[in-house]
Specification:
The protein contains seven helices and two strands. With 124 residues, the chain is mainly alpha-helical. The longest helix is centred in the C-terminal third of the chain and has 17 residues, at 107-123. The model has no long low-confidence stretch (mean pLDDT 92).
Length: 124
């Protein structure tokens, strides 16, 4: 999964221009974005230009334990959920209870259950 937030770089004129630049100006061995970093060196701190790539993660755990907690319970506790064709409702309820009492982040599992429930509601 990925989140692309590079809309300034999607301008067709910019893309056409960058397509004409030889690869050696953009990549050298393991170094990437060489020309871009040179262009930005006076605008961005050196620390920013040299930092490694980092991922972007939604604060699901905070949301599921906070503002979205009622939604999670309503959706995954609904007696009409199509999930119960394949999962035991008591098991899911026990999982949610354990998750809420624990400090362990199982938000990815909750997210997967929510999406599976939604998908099944729409397509089954």
């Amino acid at each position: 999964h990925g989140l692309e937030a590079r809309s300034p770089f999607l301008d067709h004129k910019l893309l056409e221009l960058t397509a004409t630049i030889p690869a050696g100006y953009k990549v050298q061995g393991r170094k990437r974005k060489i020309l871009l970093k040179r262009l930005l060196k006076d605008l961005l701190p050196e620390k920013t230009l040299r930092r490694p790539k980092t991922g972007f993660r939604l604060p699901l755990d905070t949301w599921f334990r906070g503002d979205l907690k009622p939604f999670v319970h309503d959706r995954l506790g609904a007696s009409d959920s199509p999930l119960w064709q394949f999962l035991e409702q008591k098991g899911v309820a026990q999982f949610l209870s354990t998750y809420e009492k624990s400090r362990t982040d199982y938000s990815d599992h909750v997210w997967a259950l929510l999406w599976l429930d939604e998908w099944m509601r729409q397509y089954t």
